[in-house]
User: Fold this.
Amino acid sequence: MALRDRYTGVLEALEPYLLKTIIIQNNNMDELMRIRKIYNSHAFYSAGTYYLFRCCEESGKLLKQMASRLSDWIYPKLPEDLCFLKKGGGDYLYSVVHEHMYGMDVTEEEAGELMERVKGLFLELKAHRDLDRLLDDAIKHQTDWLYISGHRLTELPERIRELTELRELEIFEQDLYRLPEGLFELSKLECLKILSADLEGIPASIARLKNLKVLSIQCASSDRPAPGYQAKPREEISLNRIPPEIGELEQLEQLTIQYTSIRELPPELEQLKNLQFLDIGMCLIERKPEFLGGMKQLKYVNVSRKSLFEMALDNPPEA
Assistant:
């Protein structure tokens, strides 16, 4: 079934429970604010067509048949951003899938109880400030998205390999220096983002992430900058090479590696036929390699010793 046919089929199946259709035209901010005030909901955040359905056992069964994850509710696969509104106004559950924004109007205690009762429901808790508790719950519920920050890690625990359903992982840990082999056993991983002050390197094992579409590594990043904090000079950053094995990531579409002591790019990058976005900024490369000119599918390329901000200053827009 074509994606468009599936999308239409979902709306047709839910039509018996349709209560109202709200259309907000582009640039009609007054109407958007009026609707948001009426429903007191995060669900209304931009122009578009909003469908309000009656929530009952029958419509609930249909929703369960159509998808198993909130992140599946995204256009064109399905109508975007499934939300549940309270009868008197406000959100019970909301989602903005593109931005990974999800929430439920429950207390910390209620959230914990729900997680105990419903396998697969992974909610952010204050208790997750403890890394072991965070990983316990993430592994128990086999989350497909995880954000790790504020734990003062120097390396990730090897048990990260137990998150076998993980599709997106973002790590913002200033002191993270070494990546464990267990990370590269996450065969379903599609997006990996790492922010750290310094990173030892990218292991050759990166080639095992066959489903990876987005890889982003940014050094000189601090999750708790103290007054007077300064990043290391680029020459002192440990990350000084991109392993040739990265050329084996056949699904890779976006590659960002910023603020490193990298001086050259491996020619194996030319094997990445799906790569569209390449940003190797604030590195020590003197000139863009010629082989990049043959990668016609690239829509954006930045290989520069300068930051995007510095480049913008060098090339101000014309008056």
In short: The chain has a mean pLDDT of 92. Residues 144-314 form a domain with the Leucine-rich repeat, LRR (right-handed beta-alpha superhelix) fold (CATH 3.80.10.10). Helices lie at 3-14, 29-39, 57-66, 108-117, 131-140, 308-314. The first strand starts at residue 18 and ends at 24.
